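From the methods appendix. Each design record in this collection lists the tokenized structure first, followed by the designed amino acid sequence. Records were kept in a plain field format so they could be parsed without special tools. The example shown here is representative of the layout used throughout.

RECORD:
FOLD TOKENS (474 positions):
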């Protein structure tokens, strides 16, 4: 038997290296015992095997399996290490489509663990409340949270991005995370007594929650499902809940008896289409996609960016993914690339309001660099995860022309790797539609040479004009 003792509960690096070495050494799962070193265990070193020499050979598993393992390792489940190694062992043995077997007991169990971790992650990001602490004239912020799983380390980067200008600590029973404005550090668990009782931020949360509370949509069971009572004692706004529930009916009556002047209806937004077509598959998808968890991209993104345009559009334009501006606005093609596309469409004689515009991937994938978020190209697993939504859009719209902007969009539609220079500007038969591939407008923005940029822009406009002309032939 091989005994592997990990440094701590989420020792991803230690588990990954051990799993790789064991698999390449042909050590089957039933011959490995996984455990975690206790902080006070003086004999932990004696419990471990001597390090095995690193074996030679190639060890490759899918990115989707690696992503699943990174999530599952955070689950508060002692068997997770062994379960993940069994999956790695099977994938390494040649089961390339392992994760597609959703009814497989081990795959199903791993997915349930991952779902529980993601749910706990959502709760942490929603319910952490900082309190102000002033020590020797220095202000810092402290929060207490009780996660169900080992998610502190994995979520620290999220809070660094969101509260980069604050000096803060998040204390939990298992682990504590600290940000000093420069770097993140982790320490042992703490207790609620380490957090001050009240401060001006607590009053802010109570006021904010009371102001957004809608008595007409009060559903206590739904509220307690989304905001479980276990978190109430750590939420300043929870103190306002009993009074808000007690006065809800009186406030509803007052709202009904108060004349309301409706705001103008939105124009050129798919939200209007959703209102007009509540029973359509496209409208339902526009609502359901907001809760999509098919890949990990939903976690750092601000929101889902679904397609936009009339439901009877004859032209469907598909880009790669939302950018920074789109992620914040919740609309496709509103950033620099979208503005360039608008100009090119106008020159090509295409009315944007008559085109359905969307992306192959519905969440913004990026790499943080200081305060900036730099675009990162979606990988195959992320494209395939989001293809579910793209197929709904294509099936519901049934456009005459499907215009693919860039290689990612073409791959999502055609199901294969595409070289733009080889496929560009040629009609491609699709089921019930005609496909047309061209460059993504962001490609033009990245060209450093002004002469090349002008030349490529003319070619891009020509492509748009040629795609629109196909309407007369189909």
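DESIGN:
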């Amino acid at each position: 038997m091989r005994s592997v003792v990990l440094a701590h509960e989420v020792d991803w690096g230690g588990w990954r290296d051990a799993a790789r070495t064991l698999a390449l050494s042909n050590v089957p799962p039933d011959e490995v015992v996984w455990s975690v070193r206790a902080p006070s265990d003086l004999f932990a070193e004696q419990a471990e095997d001597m390090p095995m020499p690193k074996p030679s050979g190639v060890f490759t598993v899918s990115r989707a399996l690696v992503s699943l393992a990174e999530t599952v390792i955070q689950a508060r489940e002692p068997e997770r290490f062994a379960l993940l190694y069994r999956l790695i062992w099977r994938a390494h043995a040649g089961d390339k489509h392992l994760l597609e077997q959703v009814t497989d007991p081990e795959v199903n169990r791993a997915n349930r663990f991952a779902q529980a971790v993601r749910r706990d992650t959502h709760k942490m990001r929603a319910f952490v409340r900082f309190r102000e602490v002033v020590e020797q004239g220095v202000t810092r912020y402290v929060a207490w949270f009780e996660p169900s799983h080992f998610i502190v380390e994995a979520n620290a980067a999220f809070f660094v991005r969101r509260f980069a200008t604050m000096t803060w600590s998040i204390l939990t029973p298992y682990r504590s995370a600290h940000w000093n404005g420069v770097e993140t550090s982790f320490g042992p668990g703490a207790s609620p007594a380490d957090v001050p009782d009240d401060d001006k931020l607590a009053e802010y949360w109570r006021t904010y929650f009371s102001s957004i509370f809608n008595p007409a949509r009060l559903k206590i069971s739904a509220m307690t499902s989304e905001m479980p009572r276990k978190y109430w004692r750590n939420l300043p706004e929870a103190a306002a809940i009993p009074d808000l529930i007690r006065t809800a009916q009186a406030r509803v009556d007052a709202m009904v008896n108060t004349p309301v002047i409706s705001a103008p209806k939105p124009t050129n937004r798919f939200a209007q289409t959703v209102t007009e077509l509540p029973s359509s598959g496209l409208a339902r998808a526009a609502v359901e996609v907001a809760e999509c968890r098919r890949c990990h991209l939903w976690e750092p993104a601000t929101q889902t960016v679904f397609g936009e345009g009339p439901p009877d559009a004859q032209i469907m334009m598909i880009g790669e993914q939302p950018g920074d501006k789109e992620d914040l606005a919740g609309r496709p093609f509103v950033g620099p690339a979208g503005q360039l596309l608008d100009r090119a469409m106008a020159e090509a004689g295409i009315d944007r309001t008559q085109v359905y515009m969307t992306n192959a991937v519905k969440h913004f994938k990026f790499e943080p660099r200081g305060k900036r978020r730099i675009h990162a190209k979606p990988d195959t697993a992320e494209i395939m995860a989001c293809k579910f939504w793209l197929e709904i859009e294509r099936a519901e719209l049934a456009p005459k022309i499907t215009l693919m902007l860039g290689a990612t969009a073409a791959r999502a539609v055609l199901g294969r790797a595409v070289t733009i220079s080889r496929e560009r500007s040629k009609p491609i038969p699709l089921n019930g539609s005609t496909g047309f591939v061209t460059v993504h407008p962001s490609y033009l923005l990245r060209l450093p040479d002004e002469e090349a940029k002008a030349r490529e822009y003319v070619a891009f406009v020509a492509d748009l004009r040629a795609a629109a002309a196909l309407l007369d032939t189909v």
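APPENDIX NOTE: The longest strand covers residues 138-144.
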